[in-house]
Amino acid sequence: RPAIMIYVDNWRWVTLFLLCLARSAPAKRIFRCPAECTCSKDSVICVGSSFIPRTVSNDINSLSIVNGTFPEIKEATFSLMPSLQLLLLNSNSLSVIKDDAFSGLPHLEYLFIEGNKIGTMNKSVFRGLRDLTHLSLANNNIKLLPKDLFSGLDSLIELDLRGNMFECDCQTKWLIDWLKRSNATVSDVYCNGPGEKKGLRLKDVPDQHAECITTDFVLHQTLSTQSMSAELFFYKEDIYMALAVPNSENCLVMEWDHIEINFRPLDTITGRSVVGCRAAVIHGQAYVIVTQLFDGSHVYRYDPKQNKYVKFQAVEASNISKPNDIEVFPIGDEWFFLVVDSSKAGLSTLYKWNETGFYPYQYLHEWFRDTDAEFVTMEGKPHLILASRSQVPVIYQWNKHSQKFVLHSEIPNYDDIVTVKTFQINGALHLAMACYIGDSKVVRWTGKQFEEVQAFPSRGAMVLQPFVFKEHQYLVLGSDYSFSQVYRYDEKKQEFSKFREVYVQWPRSFTALSTDRRDFLIATSFKGKTKVFEHIPVDSSL
Ligand SMILES: *[C@@H]1O[C@H](CO)[C@@H](O)[C@H](O)[C@H]1NC(C)=O
Ligand SMILES: *[C@@H]1O[C@H](CO)[C@@H](O)[C@H](O)[C@H]1NC(C)=O
Ligand SMILES: *[C@@H]1O[C@H](CO)[C@@H](O)[C@H](O)[C@H]1NC(C)=O
Ligand SMILES: *[C@@H]1O[C@H](CO)[C@@H](O)[C@H](O)[C@H]1NC(C)=O
Ligand SMILES: *[C@@H]1O[C@H](CO)[C@@H](O)[C@H](O)[C@H]1NC(C)=O
Fold it and tell me: Is the CB of 152 under 6 A from ligand 3?
């Protein structure tokens, strides 16, 4: 017994002594060279080790571990070897290197992590290696590296990234840019993809700035009202929106709030079976034309004193039975609007403004169940394109002498079109024509006729709406049964490519608004809420 007690006491004494030493001087710890390693005074080499020895002498200046079987390097793994100048971790099974793995190594100059299974790493992995001159990550499976990975490595002279699987997409843009301006010598690294970039040297990848700045549509405001259409109008330097809200029998006028950056209600025009709602600003006066299934159509005029729209006129509508769309337009200094009638018994009717109101002016296109009209100037002359359920779209031309629209031609091969919208690409007139189920189409005016440009598979599409944001041409195809698809025009390919999806329940219209240096897309819904999306730039290289 006494012998054991003495032993214990001695052991305690030894421990205390060591602790004192450790505190007072940078110290001689006692360590045993692990079985897989060969140790000398200032270096350790381990082969086939299943762990990283932590307690080797803190004087060593080189540590090599090869053919090891450990999968990761944890934070501050080498902090007990502060004088390390060289660390070689080749041919281990490393796949994970944690942030700050090499912290506490201010003198490390050479770091080799070659022939492992590293796919990527976090950006603070090499934090604190301010003396590092040589770094090799050769022969791993690296596809991408995080931005600024090398930013604290102020002494770096040589970097080896050969034998990896770099994807030269937007996420590698920073590395490509860094390689172009870095002072370190970097052996040639090649792209593994994507597509035609495979085999290209990273340094030779052309500038990707444009392709890496993209945009997204983010929900900005939700209006708790269903609606069939949203029409923007500008009146006395303010922006307004007229929403047709059939289920609550009204036409809602909203005002854009430049401070709150959203729409707020201004006035509700109550009606009976309201189906359409369009604004017209004529000689400085704001009007709203409201079409209804019953009780005819009415024109309301804005009264600044009451700050609301008051009934101005009941328009003669005896030939209209199912109004579907209203198109308001000027020809010269005369104002017109057309009510498109979608019943077999009705007539699309053109109204003309005189001092006292709108009066029927011309009946168009009998018995054809019209769906939509678009007013457009073609070859310098006013035209109306009229789509219908039972016929291909027809084109009317304005006749100067008779002061009437005259049937001019048709757009063959496109039956059953629900909406027609015009837009320009590089100065050429295009039409976007929505087909409910089948293919919606974009056609281009050649100077003689319309020729097809592209088809868009449609699953319950009530609208194919073109719009322009920040010089990009977009098209959004509504869908009653899925996501609505946003397409963007690709100048190189000269066609629209799929860009984003937005979800709107039974979308009925999309309206673009650019104001306060921001871009918005208003989506009306027949069954759900009206949504305002903001179109925001996203740098996908970050
Ligand atoms: C490492 O392992 C490989 C294959 O298992 C073997 O060929 C090589 O000789 C080993 N290297 C060392 C230094 O033991
Ligand atoms: C990388 O960072 C993320 C987020 O900070 C963290 O969840 C993850 O565990 C880190 N991975 C490594 C290997 O350190
Ligand atoms: C490269 O070296 C030059 C000259 O010493 C220096 O001005 C420049 O900042 C260095 N570039 C980087 C990225 O360190
Ligand atoms: C349109 O309505 C007017 C007035 O009710 C009527 O006189 C005229 O015959 C109608 N026109 C057509 C083409 O039905
Ligand atoms: C406007 O047109 C209507 C119908 O044709 C007519 O009754 C009215 O007198 C006209 N008003 C003016 C000021 O021309």
Answer: no
